[in-house]
């Protein structure tokens, strides 16, 4: 599970993105570290020191403690903001690494303290200065066949899954079907794809 905090340029979407990005809240998990991607030198979304389960409970006397790659985090540092409810915002973010939040709380006043540690893997990224473009060709069904369209969609899904972990994306630029005279052979239908 990871969160990518970029959007493709789209005038219609960008107009509505401002308030929504500021209100984005990331919730933790005790099962696995939650991955958060923050644009280099920008503010992070609100990172909660809570799980989905705890978020829906009333917590008595909660105490929150955040740690980053270099130790304790506090609001005394101008690049860190921690709210009284344990929400973390990293300002002008530039330090990727493991961030943990410890929360000590009670569900009832008579109950002993419970302790929970939530881990986040927070990565800084920057906009790419270059990109790769590649072409591929495949034997195809007749050019007007719907099988070619299905193959194109499946191929794009597979390529997108391959690069999802490294925060890249694959875009299909062009897809063309041609009849190709093969060496020492007959005509073959070929689909030519260009990706970036």
From TrEMBL:
Domain Ig-like: 19-117
Source taxon at top rank: Eukaryota
One Gene Ontology CC term in the entry: acrosomal vesicle
GO biological process: acrosome assembly; binding of sperm to zona pellucida
A Pfam family that the UniProt record links to this protein: Sp38
Transmembrane portions of the chain: none
Name of the molecule in the record: Ig-like domain-containing protein
Source species of the chain: Fulmarus glacialis
């Amino acid at each position: 599970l990871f969160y990518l905090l970029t959007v493709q340029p789209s005038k219609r979407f960008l107009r509505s993105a401002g308030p929504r990005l500021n209100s984005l809240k990331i919730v933790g998990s005790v099962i696995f570290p939650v991955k958060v991607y923050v644009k280099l030198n920008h503010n992070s979304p609100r990172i909660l020191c809570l799980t989905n389960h705890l978020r829906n409970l009333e917590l008595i006397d909660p105490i929150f403690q955040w740690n980053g790659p270099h130790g304790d985090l506090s609001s005394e540092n101008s690049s860190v903001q921690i709210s009284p409810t344990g929400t973390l915002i990293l300002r002008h973010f530039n330090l990727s690494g493991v961030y943990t939040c410890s929360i000590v709380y009670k569900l009832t006043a008579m109950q002993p303290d419970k302790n929970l540690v939530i881990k986040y893997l927070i990565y800084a990224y920057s906009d790419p200065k270059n990109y790769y473009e590649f072409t591929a060709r495949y034997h195809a069904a007749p050019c007007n066949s719907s099988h070619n369209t299905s193959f194109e969609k499946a191929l794009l899904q597979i390529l997108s899954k391959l690069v999802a972990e490294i925060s890249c994306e694959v875009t299909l630029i062009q897809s063309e079907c041609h009849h190709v005279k093969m060496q020492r052979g007959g005509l073959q239908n070929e689909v030519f794809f260009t990706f970036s």
